[in-house]
Each structure stands twice: as C-alpha cells, then as structure tokens.
Amino acid sequence: MDAPRTPAEALAFLARLNPSGIKLGLERVREALEALGHPERLAPVLHVAGTNGKGSTCAFAATALQAAGHRVGLYTSPHLVRVNERIRVDGVDISDADFGQAILDVLERYPSALSEPMTYFEFGTVVALWHFARVGVDVVVLETGLGGRLDATTASPARVTAITPVSFDHMEYLGNTLASIAGEKAGILRPGVPCVVSRQAPEALEAIAARAHAVGAPLRLEGRDFELAVSSSGRLSFHGASWRLDDLSLSLRGPHQRQNAAVALACLELLDAGGIHVTPEAARRGLATARWPGRLEEVGARPTLVLDGAHNPAGVEVLLASLEALYPGRRPHCVFGVVADKDRGPMMRALFPRCASVQLTPLDTPRSLAPETYLEEARSLCPDVSAWPDLDAALAAARARAGEAGVVLCTGSLFLVGMVRARVARAPAPQGVS
Q1: pTM for the predicted model, two decimal places
Q2: Half-sphere exposure of 397 (CA within 13 A, CB side)
Q3: Can you name the residues that pair with 126 across neighbouring β-strands?
Q4: Which of 287, 285, 282 is nearest to 251 (CA)?
Q5: Which domain holds residue 138?
Q6: Which end of the chain is less crowded, N or C, counting CB atoms within 10 A of the terminal residue's CB?
C-alpha cells in the first residue's frame, strides 16, 4: 500500500481500512505504540468497559474532568456521522487537518501499518493516543471498543477502570454466557488498579470478582460502596467513599443515566484520591452539562423525533423504560433498521408490541439487513408494519402516522442514528463505521 503524503490522503487511507474488521489481540497495537515512543504512558487514563452505558459514563467523567480544569482527551466508538467524533480534546472533535497529520506521523514512525494493515479500530486507537500525547492532555478517558481483555484500548495503562452493565452482545467474539462476556470485559482489570463496577447480574459479577481476585484489583461496587439515590421528592444524591453530593441534575435523559452518573462519580472520586484533582463541584457541573448524542436525543418537534442507539436486548429494555418515563401514554411510531449480524429477535419482541407502528428501513452499510427479509416476522409483533426502500421514505411514513402530537422513534442501530442525525443537522454524510 502506498504511503499517503498529505493529511487528505491520510484520511483516505484510514477510510480504506476494513471498517468491520475485528482482530482480537494486543500485539499489533503494542508494537505500534512502542515504535511511537509509548504515547499511551504520558497521561493518566480512565478506562471504561461494559455492554451498555459506557459511552455516557465516559461523557460524564470527561466533562467533569474538564470542569475541574484538566485538558481532557476522550476516545470513544463508534461515531454517528463523522469519524472525527471518536477523538476529542476538551469536548471538541479532532479537525481534519490534525487527524490527517496524526495519521501521517504514525505511519512515518510505524511503516509496518502500510504493509500489514491494522484494523480500523486498532489504527484509530493508536492515532488517538498519539494525538493526545502530541497536544499534551492532562488525562485520557478511553472507552473500549469490544470486550476488554484483547481490546486495542487495553494496551494503554490505566489509573482507574470501570465496568458498566454487562449483557448479551458480540457473542460471536465474547462468548454465549454472561459469565464469559463479563470475563472478557474484566480483562481491563490491572493489579492494584481500582475498578468501579455497576450493578450486574449475579453471574456477571461473579466473573468480574474472580478476575479481580486473580489479578489483585480492588473493586468498588454499586450498592455496596457507592450509590446514586432518588428521594421521594425526585432529587438525586450520591453517596460514595468520601463524597456526599445532593440535589444533582443530569443532562442526559432517562432513568438509566442515574447508574451511568453514579459510576462516573465513583471513578472521579478515585481519580481525585489518586492525585488527579477533581472537586465535588466540578463533578456536579460535569453531570449537569455532559452531552452524548444519539441516546434518547430529541432532534425534532411536531412530531417529536427521538433518536436512540439501542442495538441489543438490554439496550431496548432500558429504552422502553425511558420512553415510559419521558412520554407516558404515548406509543411511538418506530423507524427501525438493523445490521444482519445482530440478534434482532429479542429486540423486536420487546419493542414492536409497544409501538403504534413500525417502519423498516435499510441502512447505509453493507452489513444492513434488508427490511423485506424480516417483514413478516415484524408483522407478527405489531399490526402496522411496512418495509421501505430507504430512510427518507420510512421517516416520512412514520411522521405521517404520528401527526404533530405524536412521537417518532428511530432505533435499532447506531448506523440509523447517524443517518438521521446527518439529515436533521444537514451534517456531512456518514463516513467510515458507525
């Protein structure tokens, strides 16, 4: 593969890497980071794994760290519209010029990436860590991509780790039981490094605890060591090892965000105790101002247009509880799209009976499942289901059915959320992977 010579050519090089390629293992990433002089060691890291909620947890923590006066690097995936969203410093996406230059820097120092290309996620992780070191961040917040034990982000040492709720997803890579999936997620644990753990199913918690015992990682467990409680008046308060915070407000919507906020606060407590200064007031501001698009996000009115990236059964259950809390008595008109390698059945069985109508749409990815292939299955779950040739037609049908007073919900895949956001915000067309 020819080496790119300009930032624009470098971005094109990244886009040509297989966006769906997955190679579990740390050897390639560690080799690249060594060639780069170990940029992953230049700033303390908060490393977050889990199945659902890890992105929101990272957003809460990163915003609070910034409010405390730190220069914060945030690396998350997937993106919704532009790949630049994955690499942020103080809440700002990396620019095309800086992104392209970082890719050129990495390829110059690690030319093996040209002859033996890494996966899209592996290479993006290395570029992110290089960029954070180059611009001199004070602290890095890393979200795992898949699993934990062999995830590219795990090549970076952590000061604090966290595991959000574990549920069934990516079973072809992580295993078919909650215990096996949780064991893979718990691969981010390090000797002596504290790990904050949200409430888990018993078998998941048992696997995490076993890994913690094996490596000597102290655990802080939700419900035992920290809690975000709701008073009878609806006010939120956090009780941790040292912090007591009352009258908290959350910028991210849905009851499930209380758990994500609790995990973030427990992580911030540990970071503060470890020398990365965070005041309770900065933590409070972080919870109140964090943004995480595509999660119960309202992007339109008359009818209300809601985007949510739920793409597994646990995510759908959380979505349904949130819809009932936010829009009581209003059955949504759903625009639904899914990729072929997802277990759509449990999602559909939970979601579709709760919808007034369902409009099936294809996605802008080769992984998209054609709507007509599961139309009859969908119709067995909701009386008003139609398959459409594209998103614009599906959206128009949902809006017509909803009327001005209704709710249109777009869900099933982050691909779909990115497609709708691009249309609503008149943003550039989605690129790379989401």
Answers
A1: 0.93
A2: 21
A3: none
A4: 287
A5: 7-289
A6: N
